[in-house]
Amino acid sequence: MTEIPASPMLSTRSVERAHRLTVLQRLWKSRGLYLLLAPTIVGMIVFQYYPALRAFWGSFHTWDGRRARFIGLFNYQFFLDDPRLLQSWVNIFILLIFNLISLSFPLLVAYLIYRLPNPRHRYLYRVLVVLPVIAPGFVFIVLWRWLFSLEGGINIILRAIGIDSQVVWLGNSNTALGSLMFMGFPWIEAFTVLIFLAGFIAIPGEMIDAALVDGATGWQRFRKIELPMVQGQLKVLVILTFIGTIQDFGRALFMTDGGPGYSTMVPGLRMYYAFTQENAYGYASAIGVILFVVILILTLINQRLIRGSED
Question: Cys-Cys crosslink for 106: which of 89, 193, 273, 309, Cβ 3.0 to 4.6 Å?
């Protein structure tokens, strides 16, 4: 008696049904974990994804928070004609280039700490780098506002060395943006230093010993061995610098209010004023959408370039 071969269609359906049951069984077995994750997922949907989608919807409308009227691409068209916003993109580009270059300062400090021969000294300098984080950020803003004032610390230092300075650094359109860039001198942020330092510490000792045996000097060791080994950390910090610089407007808000004129206006601050002072909620949403697209494109380009350099 010959056996009737099973139908391929029936076999495929059986496999799919068995796979579906297996997935459901795994989900049910881990139901406690999914229940614990549920509040986090709901919170992300309500407070992160929904506002973002709402802003995208609002960018095509004119609305005051209660009533909305569809106006198509008018907000995006006004975006191209807004002189304050056009100047803000020039300013943010200058700040972005400066912030990327300033990453070299924490890299240098992290490397110097890493090369210290005494572990106790390395620990001491790590503490000294992290110590300023204890102070609230507002304290630094107040301090820098005083430093840049007419009778502030910078003018006092200049007069002490024989330069009769009467410059209000934040009130002069020629010096305001440069003053914002000078804030935080010498640009050693604890978070950045610690990330670079963690990368240097993670370099295998065998690799360093092999380089020394091969006669690598200090500069050759840094350029060919140690710096390439922290490219992962550098990639993360470059991406975070891109995102943080384009999103940030607190420094310009508290220090110069975007002025004098538009000399320190940045896109985030223009969006803030459109929302809070002009009640142009739709236009503010359009600026937010464009900022999102710009950050996404720059991040993808940055990842592509760094990946290409690693290859």
Answer: 193
Give residue 287's domain range.
74-310
Domain assignment present for 41? no
CATH number of the domain enclosing 230:
1.10.3720.10
**264, burial (CB in 10 Å: exposed 0-12, middle 13-18, buried 19+):** buried
The two structure tokens encoding residue 5? 């071969």
State the pTM of this model: 0.79
Cα radius of gyration (the chain): 27
pLDDT above 70 covers a percentage of the chain that reads 90
Q: Is residue 48 part of a domain?
A: no
Between CA 109 and CA 132 the distance in angstroms is 15
Residue 194 covered by a domain: yes
**Tens-digit pLDDT profile for residues 33-79:** 888 888 999 999 998 889 888 888 888 888 766 777 888 888 888 88
Q: Domain count of the chain?
A: 1
Q: Is residue 147 part of a domain?
A: yes
In sequence order, the 6+-apart residues with CB closer than 8 A to the CB of 111 are 196, 200, 222, 226
- Residue 10 pLDDT: 45
- Residue linked to tokens 């549920």: 38
- Give 251-275 as a DSSP string: HHHHHTTT-STTTT--HHHHHHHHH
- Tens of pLDDT, residue by residue over 83-122, are 888 889 999 999 999 999 999 999 999 999 988 888 888 8
Selection from 194, 181, 179 nearest residue 102 by Cα: 181
For the segment 246-293, what is each residue's pLDDT rounded down to a tens digit?
888 888 888 888 888 888 999 999 999 988 888 888 888 899 999 988
